[in-house]
């Protein structure tokens, strides 16, 4: 009896029987490899996979040494708990020069993102600098403002270096009103400017008489009336509480802020009405139509949350992510204030009529601090309606949030998402997990025109590039037990 032949015939029969049934195939890696079996009738599941550390053997060995390290785990637990402990209490609105020391003297401006010289700035940010110089009366015209900025007569500073944040170009000048927000648990204070609303706005690099008129009104009427209303409030205005409620009402609290804006306006309405002489009624009219209103609140509250977990020795959690339209940069808790940068990513999204990808500026703004604290792209599952604004589907929004959970330390206790059975939003991006998996953090964002003076042309999704995280990982030291 030929046992080998019998075995071969049995195996062939079993193999033939398997081929007679519909096949379910998992394709790992290059998606096109799954096309032929799919065309032959198989069900193919494409599994995206990248080699750890981008295939860099030396970095991969370092990653292995950093993974499951008990000292790092303890540091991350500490940073994570500090981040979740943070509160964000709205205290006042005052001119920026009264709150931010670097703006108290001379010609100084803040801008979003990692450091950058004026000549290297993207069009929208350059326009923001020019517009701010005109607003402050430092320059006679755009040419004069450009010359002064180029010659260094206007000093430029990063918002994050001064506990401040600003959307898109992030320009904050001395006379602009800023919100003062405190974290009483960790003893920190942070600042942000007031949102200009939709349409042509300086934050997107729009210039013109209409933009200047609105900025002057914000400084002369909106800011003073808001400050008075906040100081008169019977109860502290808790931005963390408002954010938690908004997540359960359809906001992801970065690109969609309808619920949060409405709740905040309701809190402030009595005080604004009582201060009609300062501009309170005008403010209510403006806020009624400004669905972007809460974005700046969300950003400054997130800044306080992430900063609470900053500077924890050996922690690998990301505490800052920001973009200047040319480069993007991250900061890591255990690596202090050093920036780790990469060229800014393109934004994939939907464009206003008449515009397309060829018109778009690369990713820009401080608003990704919201993702750094578990909002925006990380909470996309909370905002099904937003997919019509940034592209995608409800299912893809849910998948995005769940994928972000694979690169974070844990989930937020207060920021819960109904479509995920009230699981918390993923928070505490661990750079080790990003480098290991190749999964890049997702951001929801607006799209600015690349040329100065035009403004917003769309909205969509982008990512924090992997290069930022591999560069940060190289700078980490392997702690000795």
UniProtKB/TrEMBL annotation:
InterPro entries associated with the record: AllG-like, OXTCase_su_AllG_h-dom
Pfam family, one: AllG
Signal peptide range: none
Gene3D superfamilies in the record: conserved protein of unknown function from Enterococcus faecalis V583, Enterococcus faecalis V583 domain, NAD(P)-binding Rossmann-like Domain, v583 domain like
Protein name per its UniProtKB record: DUF1116 domain-containing protein
Organism: Brachybacterium equifaecis
């Amino acid at each position: 009896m030929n046992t080998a032949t019998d075995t071969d015939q049995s195996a062939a029969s079993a193999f033939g029987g398997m081929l007679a049934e519909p096949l379910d195939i998992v394709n790992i890696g290059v998606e096109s490899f799954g096309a032929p079996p799919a065309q032959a009738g198989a069900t193919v599941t494409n599994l995206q996979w990248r080699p750890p550390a981008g295939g860099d053997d030396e970095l991969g060995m370092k990653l292995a040494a950093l993974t499951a390290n008990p000292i790092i785990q303890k540091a991350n637990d500490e940073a994570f708990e500090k981040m979740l402990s943070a509160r964000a209490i709205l205290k006042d609105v005052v001119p920026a020069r009264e709150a931010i020391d670097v703006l108290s003297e001379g010609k100084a401006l803040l801008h979003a993102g990692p450091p950058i010289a004026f000549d290297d700035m993207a069009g929208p940010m350059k326009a923001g600098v020019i517009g701010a110089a005109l607003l402050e009366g430092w320059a006679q015209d755009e040419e004069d403002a450009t010359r002064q900025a180029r010659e260094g007569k206007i000093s430029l500073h990063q918002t994050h270096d001064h506990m401040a944040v600003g959307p898109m170009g992030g320009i904050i000048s001395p006379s602009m009103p800023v919100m003062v927000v405190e974290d009483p648990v960790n003893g920190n204070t942070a600042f942000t400017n007031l949102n200009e609303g939709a349409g042509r706005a300086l934050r997107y690099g729009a210039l013109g008489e209409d933009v200047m008129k609105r900025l002057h009104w914000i400084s002369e009427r909106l800011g003073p009336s808001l400050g008075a209303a906040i100081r008169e409030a019977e109860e502290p205005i808790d931005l963390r509480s408002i954010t938690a409620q908004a997540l359960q009402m359809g906001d992801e609290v970065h690109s969609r802020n309808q619920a949060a804006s409405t709740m905040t306006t309701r809190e402030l309405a009595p005080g604004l009405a009582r201060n009609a002489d300062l501009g309170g009624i005008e403010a209510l009219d403006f806020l009624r139509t400004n669905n972007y209103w809460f974005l700046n609140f969300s950003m400054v509250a997130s800044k306080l949350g992430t900063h609470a977990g900053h500077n924890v020795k050996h922690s690998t959690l990301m505490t800052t992510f920001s973009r200047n339209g040319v480069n993007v940069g991250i900061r890591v808790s255990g690596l202090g204030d050093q920036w780790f940068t990469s060229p800014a990513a393109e934004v994939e999204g939907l464009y206003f009529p008449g515009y397309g990808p060829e018109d778009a500026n690369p990713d820009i703004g401080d608003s990704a601090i919201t993702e750094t604290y578990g909002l925006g792209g990380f909470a996309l599952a909370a905002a099904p309606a937003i997919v019509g604004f940034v592209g995608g589907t409800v299912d893809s929004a849910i998948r995005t949030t769940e994928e972000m959970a694979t690169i974070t330390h844990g989930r937020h206790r207060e920021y819960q998402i109904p479509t995920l059975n009230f699981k918390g939003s993923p928070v505490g991006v661990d750079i080790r997990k990003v480098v290991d998996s190749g999964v890049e953090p997702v951001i929801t964002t607006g799209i600015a025109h690349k040329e100065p003076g035009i403004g917003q042309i769309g909205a969509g999704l982008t990512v924090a590039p992997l290069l930022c995280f591999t560069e940060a990982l190289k700078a980490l030291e392997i702690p000795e037990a």
